[in-house]
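Hi R.,

Here's the chain you asked about this morning:
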Amino acid sequence: MRADAEDILQDVWYQFTTTVDTEPIEQVSSWLFTVARNKITRPLPEKRNRNPWKTSLKPEDEDDGP
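And the predicted structure, written out as tokens:
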């Protein structure tokens, strides 16, 4: 969970630094809050959604039974 928060912070900071160079931001705190909220509420990328406890077996890896 902490790693996800750090990733979101990095994403927001990167987006802020690239945006502020191209266009002025009048209300920085509102902009930062909105971008952070959007990053949090959107679904996480596939790499973060994986369940480490679930093993995914390919059909050729499965046993045919006892």
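Residues 10 and 16 are 10 Å apart (CA to CA).

Let me know if you need anything else.
M.
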